[in-house]
Design goal:
By secondary structure, this protein is mainly α. The protein is built from ten helices and no strands. The protein has one domain. The chain has helices spanning 3-18, 25-37, 42-51, 59-66, 69-83, 90-101, 113-122, 132-141, 152-166, 172-183. It starts with a helix and ends with a helix. The mean pLDDT is 89.
Length: 185
């Protein structure tokens, strides 16, 4: 077993030991709703913002709330379809889905936390959350050798490669949980 695998297994075990078994309930519920409706709505995105502990009083949230629900659902439905496209590699699916989400308020900038949470809820077996803790975990895992500008598709390629190294019983979400644990608070 490699050092990377050992670090990830230890981090995931630490997460499983310390985390509340209820932590991902919001993600699971939103994901179930996305599967049933093939999209996410403003209520779902609001729940994900609370789940990720982001501020909901920002300009992008105000703009999102002024966006018609039908438009939000149309954008997230297209993004979900792209994320679930198993005819392409995970990184390519992530890139396409992320580009689709750029039309959604809160997802057009360089930040990855909100769009990656949306994509993880939309395609939980394939996508993973990319936030500051996951980035710090990657940096820890690779001794600081990650590019300063790291796209969501590059992150997903790395996560999927790590998942394949660690074992098929892991999902990309398991990898991001381990990375977040390594990244700390």
């Amino acid at each position: 077993m490699t050092e990377i695998e050992n670090q990830l297994l230890a981090a995931k075990a630490k997460y499983d030991e310390q985390a509340s078994p209820h932590y991902d309930e919001v993600l699971s519920e939103v994901s179930s709703r996305a599967e049933a409706s093939s999209s996410l709505g403003k209520v779902d995105i609001g729940a994900l913002v609370a789940w990720k502990r982001l501020q909901a009083n920002t300009r992008w949230m105000a703009k999102l709330m002024r966006t018609p629900e039908a438009e939000v659902r149309a954008i997230t439905a297209r993004a979900r379809e792209a994320a679930l496209d198993d005819s392409v590699a995970v990184a390519s699916a992530a890139d396409t889905a992320r580009r689709i989400l750029k039309d959604l308020p809160g997802c057009g900038g360089r930040g990855q936390a909100v769009p990656s949470a949306i994509l993880t809820a939309a395609a939980p077996q394939r996508m993973a959350v990319y936030d500051r803790r996951a980035r710090k975990g990657l940096s820890t895992l690779f001794d600081g050798r990650i590019p300063r500008s790291y796209t969501y598709s590059a992150y997903m390629e790395t996560v999927d490669d790590i998942r394949q190294q660690v074992g098929q019983s892991w999902t990309n979400r398991d990898v991001d949980l381990a990375l977040s644990t390594l990244g700390g608070k």
